[in-house]
Amino acid sequence: MAVKPIIHDELSLKFKSLPATKQDLGAATDLKDTLLSNKDRAAGLAANMIGVQKRIIALFVGPLPIVMLNPIIVAQDDKYLAYEGCLSLTGERPTERYKTITVKYQNENLETRQQSFSDFTAEVIQHEVDHCNGILI
């Protein structure tokens, strides 16, 4: 298990992440391990939060941690105002989110998947995809 420290430097978090490849699967495992070790205070993490500038996110879907490589939100519906916290930042901040999204991504076997999510899970995915794009709440 390779738990990594969480990055708090906003400047480094504002860089756009590069596409993930097969060579980044170790970083994906580290990200999942780090999420599991922070499960009491984090619903999701992006790779740049552990110092890896790749498009990889990890989040809980129910009790299970999943990893998405190169996630892209391809559809979104029903905008609302959310108040979110972030493990890399202090406090909560308002941000616009969508209740329902569809995400295209690769799983840990590099198989392409497309799946719809709603409610809190959709909110977490949007937050982490924003991290990949260098966007902070």
Describe this structure in words.
- This protein has 137 residues and is an alpha+beta fold.
- Helices cover 23% and strands 39% of the residues.
- The chain is built from 3 helices and 5 strands.
- It has helices at residues 10-13, 25-37, 119-132, and strands spanning 44-46, 56-61, 64-85, 92-106, 112-118.
- A hairpin with a 2-residue loop joins strand 2 and strand 3 (64-85).
- The protein starts with 9 loop residues before the first helix and ends in a 5-residue tail after the last helix.
Question: TL;DR of this structure?
Answer:
The protein has 137 residues and is α+β, with helices and mostly antiparallel strands. Helices cover 23% and strands 39% of the residues.
- Biggest sheet strand order reads 1-2-3-4-5
How is the quaternary structure best described? single chain
Instruction: Tell me the strand percentage band.
Output: 35-45%
What do we call the CATH topology? Peptide Deformylase
Say how many strands there are. 5
Q: Biggest sheet, in brief? A: 5 strands, antiparallel
Fraction of residues in H or I helices: 10-25%
Alpha carbon gap, first and last residue: 29 Å
The averaged pLDDT comes out at: 95
CATH class: Alpha Beta
Broad shape: globular
Q: What Rg is obtained from the alpha carbons, in whole angstroms?
A: 14 Å
Total individual domains: 1
How many H/I helical runs?
Answer: 3
Order of helices and strands: HHEEEEEH
InterPro entries: Peptide_deformylase, Peptide_deformylase_sf
Protein name: Peptide deformylase
Keywords: Hydrolase
Family: Belongs to the polypeptide deformylase family.
